[in-house]
Specification:
This protein has about 475 residues and is an alpha/beta fold. About 20% of the residues lie in helices and about 20% in strands. The chain has helices at about 205-240, 255-260, 305-315, 350-360, 365-370, 375-390, 465-475; strands at about 5-10, 15, 30, 35-40, 55, 60, 80, 85-90, 100-105, 110, 125-130, 135, 150, 155-160, 160, 175, 185, 270-275, 275-285, 290-295, 325-330, 340-345, 400, 410, 415-420, 425.
């Protein structure tokens, strides 16, 4: 199959080993075989396919080591091989994959140090190395990754001082639990201070330092102070105009791009529908990334405000348990009508409501029993983490106003993400009691979904964080 570009075999019961002959598919771009019963090692031939963009082999029984040839996959963007038994060191050649955006090597058996070469992957946005046997220090080079949004190093055996710059200054974007040897870092981590480095104990050596080195150091310091002041002023001016804003990382998409990517917004690709919008699955960009496209029904009263609310609520928040917005589109359709849409990451496991209840109605007992007690507890924790961040982040509290199972989306690893912020409200000053409206389709309508909205909202009470907590309790019951 020399022209094959995409091979999806996920959620089956395939066993045996991954055939080396897949390396002959020199036009292959997407290889997805997660959630099967495969064993053996990952063939190095896969990494010699020059066109490969995505390799997802998570949740199998793969073992062996990750071959150094992975450095040949220059176009590789997504590497997911979590929840296997892969051991050995993480290859330093992984840093040669300059296009990588998402690396998930969690829940494996990797050992050794974290390669410093990973700090050279400037496009990297997600790095998950949790639940392994990694040792040593955290490379300071990871602090240089400007686009890194999530870093999970939890439950390893790391033993070092945590850097304080870059991603390490945002304690809500990184996880380091389960590494008792770590110290220092940002104050919000509440870790013990690192022990001071031992000083030279020889009095004779200290005497030489004071008599010879100190006078020389004094002269050099005076010269350096003057130079630093001059350079610092120039650097500050350059920084004020050169640092990119987050908005510059949003890719541009047109109505035609979304129309083609969803096959004309076909019913076949429709995965959800609400009062203000319809959600379609589609493939966008050069690597044909699977995304969710939320198209707003502008003919419905209040939809315009719903679009603005969702943009305002999500443009400055970053949390792994919130649905990540990839980009937005505000344009006109083929008939000249206003068109507004949000493009977000695709959640292959759908929403929590469908997972909990649709399988019961369909009589598919085997599908229902796949949701283990541990997974249910994890989903509860994920949603609680998202609410804690929304209610207490440093940019002001955000009230979701419509928390319910159908707005909880699950990715391929059953990680829950809170979505649909069309009714969200926020306040900039957490010390005040009143919320500034981000959106309200109607000032007198109940803000939320009957059955999940707190009773006091029906009497006209102001929305509050406590209302979200009430909805959370109803949802989890």
């Amino acid at each position: 199959m020399s022209q094959l570009e995409e091979l999806d075999l996920d959620f089956n019961r395939f066993d045996g080993q991954i055939p080396q002959a897949l390396g002959n598919l020199q036009m292959l771009r997407f290889l997805n075989i997660p959630n099967n019963n495969l064993h053996g090692s990952i063939p190095k031939e896969l990494f010699r396919i020059s066109t490969i963009v995505q390799i997802i082999l998570s949740s199998n029984n793969l073992d062996g080591t990750l071959h150094d040839d992975i450095g040949n996959a220059k176009q590789l963007t997504y590497l997911h091989i979590s929840s296997n038994n892969i051991s050995g060191e993480i290859p330093r050649t992984l840093g040669n994959c300059e296009s990588l955006e998402d690396i998930n090597l969690d829940h494996d058996a990797f050992s050794g140090n974290i390669p410093a070469s990973l700090g050279g992957i400037t496009s990297l946005q997600i790095l998950n190395l949790s639940h392994n046997n990694l040792t040593g220090s955290i490379p300071t080079s990871l602090a240089n990754l400007k686009l890194l949004e999530l870093l999970d190093l939890s439950f390893n055996h790391l033993n070092c001082e945590i850097p304080t710059k870059g991603i390490f200054s945002n304690v809500t974007a990184m996880w380091i639990d389960g590494n008792p040897g770590l110290c220092g870092g940002a104050l919000e981590l509440h870790l013990p201070a690192c022990p001071a480095k031992p000083l030279y104990s020889s009095k004779q050596h200290q005497s030489i330092v004071w008599k010879v080195m100190v006078p020389l150091a004094t002269l050099l310091s005076l010269a350096m102070v003057v130079s630093v002041i001059v350079l610092w002023r120039g650097k500050q001016k350059r920084k004020s105009v050169s640092l990119p804003t987050f908005g510059s990382t949003f890719p541009k998409v047109s109505y035609n791009d979304l129309y083609r990517g969803t096959e004309g917004f076909s019913v076949h690709n429709l995965i959800g529908k609400g009062r203000y919008s319809s959600v379609y699955q589609g493939k966008l960009f050069q690597d044909r990334t699977m995304v969710a496209v939320k198209v707003f029904s502008l003919e419905t009263k209040g939809t315009q405000k719903s679009f603005v609310a969702e943009c305002n609520a999500l443009r400055n928040v970053r949390h792994r348990n919130l649905v990540r917005i990839i980009t937005a589109c505000s344009s006109t359709d083929s008939k000249g009508n206003d068109f507004k849409a949000l493009v977000s990451e695709f959640m292959p496991r759908g929403d929590l409501h469908a997972l909990l209840y649709s399988t019961r109605d369909d009589g598919d007992i085997s599908a229902f029993t796949r949701i283990t007690l541990a997974q249910r507890i994890c989903i509860v924790v994920h949603v609680a983490d998202a609410l804690e961040y929304l209610h207490h982040n440093n940019q002001g509290a955000i009230v979701h106003c419509d928390l319910k199972p159908s707005n909880i989306l699950l990715d391929e690893n059953m990680i829950a993400h809170v979505g649909d912020f069309g009714l969200a409200r926020f306040r900039v000053d957490p010390t005040t009691s009143s919320f500034a409206d981000v959106i309200s389709a109607s000032s007198i309508a109940i803000k939320g979904t009957v059955g999940y909205v707190p009773p006091e909202y029906a009497t006209g009470d102001n929305v509050s964080c406590a209302g979200d907590v009430y909805s959370f309790g109803i949802e989890e019951c």
